[in-house]
Write a sequence for this structure.
């Protein structure tokens, strides 16, 4: 079982991802409880998983501009189907088929 | 998780958590409160009067793009009676500013506002590309910052405007408060939280987004699908500001009100009289007429160093001594055109030449 997602990067973040704003990808519906560990314990794929997955599969450069302490770097906004992820449980939001996740950097010049 | 309803209209689904208040609100209420807060900032500080000519300092980035849009909305909604202009400075950075200026040109069409672009090359005879090729990437931000500040005033004078508004937001101001504390720059600490700087005798400069969080500006641009440019400058970023920025973002992650709290702290500082007494009096530059706290303004000092092939003489004391040892500035030195404050007559001529 897997979930297909649409992921978008903007505000300059796309520069870390092959300068491509929109990406379609699929992730497993169930993932290990701790990222990268192959244990029998699983959980439904959530945004924390997605962030790690993007780092290891799509990110091309300068990981420190995307992630810090197991989540996105402060100053990066995350939207789940156009809603602020702070209203959706942040990293613990369980991904659903067809979700659109947007990452926007606020750190680039005004 | 069941969808939450908006704390303000109690009807629509909440889509955003406000960093300032923690309120969960819907898209339409967000537009309304964001615009209304900027309007309140403008009216409570009496920033404008009807008939004012106002230039929006436009870089093509998120803040100034949202500012241009919101200024247009508010000017129409509340009948401010302002003549709005876009003013852009072309620093001459290939692959960065030339692209962002394309965004400003689209904004000019989208918002139907006249646009004036003034370049460093035109004003100083130097592009940032040329400056970096002489001074390297270490101190180039000093040149860019000093030159931009003066270029904005001069561009504004050419447009004959009374007032420049810039897109500086709450995060920028909190960052500047921190930087000034860390550098012990008391003069700047005292004025960096002012919504409007510069006195009666020069063009006013103000920050209508003083209390607007960067997060909300970016969300506003996203929801309104505004067209902005977001590439990092290709020359090394201001490292010191970078540290302050990362520190502030970490504070915000722990406690979102930190940003507004730092601004309030900055506003509440009172500078002791005996500290104030050591600060330099403002005068005008003997060479170009721009305001200055020394005989020569910072831009003229930097330009002289560039022209004499010693760009860093405006930066370090050692390089300055070396320059001085070579004697006074030659008579044929390239200088910045003399700065005249816009009176209405002079302004009309300037606008004609600007559009020709």
């Amino acid at each position: 079982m897997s979930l297909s997602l649409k992921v978008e990067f903007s505000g300059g973040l796309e520069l870390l991802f092959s300068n491509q704003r929109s990406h379609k990808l699929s992730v497993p519906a169930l993932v290990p409880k701790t990222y990268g560990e192959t244990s029998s314990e699983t959980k439904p794929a959530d945004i924390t998983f997605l962030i790690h997955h993007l780092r290891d599969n799509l990110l091309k450069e300068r990981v420190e501009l995307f992630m810090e302490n197991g989540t996105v770097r402060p100053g990066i906004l995350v939207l789940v189907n156009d809603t602020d992820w702070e209203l959706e449980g942040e990293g613990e939001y369980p991904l659903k088929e067809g979700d659109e996740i947007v990452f926007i950097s606020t750190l680039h010049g005004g | 998780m069941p969808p939450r309803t908006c704390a303000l209209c109690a009807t629509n689904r909440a889509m955003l958590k406000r960093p300032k208040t923690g309120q969960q609100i819907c898209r339409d209420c967000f537009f309304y409160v964001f615009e209304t807060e900027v309007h309140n900032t403008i009216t409570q500080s009496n920033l404008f009067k009807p008939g004012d000519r106002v230039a929006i300092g436009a870089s093509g980035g998120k803040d100034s793009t949202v500012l241009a849009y919101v200024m247009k909305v508010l000017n129409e909604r509340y009948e401010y009676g302002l003549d709005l202009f876009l003013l852009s400075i072309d620093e001459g950075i290939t692959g960065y500013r030339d692209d962002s200026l394309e965004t400003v040109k689209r904004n000019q069409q989208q918002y139907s506002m006249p646009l004036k672009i003034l370049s460093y090359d035109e004003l100083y005879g130097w592009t940032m590309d040329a400056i970096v090729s002489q001074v390297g990437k270490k101190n180039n931000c000093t040149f860019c910052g000093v030159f931009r500040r003066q270029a904005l005033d001069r561009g504004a004078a050419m447009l004959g405007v009374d007032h420049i508004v810039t897109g500086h937001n709450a995060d920028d101001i909190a960052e500047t408060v921190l930087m000034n504390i860390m550098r012990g720059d008391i003069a700047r600490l005292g004025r960096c939280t002012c919504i409007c700087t510069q006195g009666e005798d020069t063009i006013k400069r103000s920050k209508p987004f003083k209390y607007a969080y960067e997060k909300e500006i970016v969300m506003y641009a996203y929801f309104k699908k505004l067209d902005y440019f977001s590439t990092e400058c290709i020359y090394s970023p201001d490292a010191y500001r970078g540290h302050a920025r990362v520190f502030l973002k970490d504070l915000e992650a722990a406690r979102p009100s930190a940003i507004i709290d730092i601004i309030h702290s900055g506003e509440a500082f009172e500078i002791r009289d005996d500290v104030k007494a050591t600060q330099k009096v403002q005068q005008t530059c003997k060479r170009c007429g721009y305001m200055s706290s020394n005989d020569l303004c910072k831009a003229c000092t930097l330009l002289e160093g560039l022209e004499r092939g010693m760009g860093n003489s405006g930066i370090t004391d050692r390089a300055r001594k070396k320059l001085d040892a070579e004697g006074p500035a030659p008579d044929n030195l390239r200088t910045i055109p003399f700065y005249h404050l816009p009176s209405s007559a002079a302004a009309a001529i300037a606008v004609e030449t600007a559009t020709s």
About this structure: Residues 30-271 of chain B form a domain with the Rossmann fold fold (CATH 3.40.50.620).
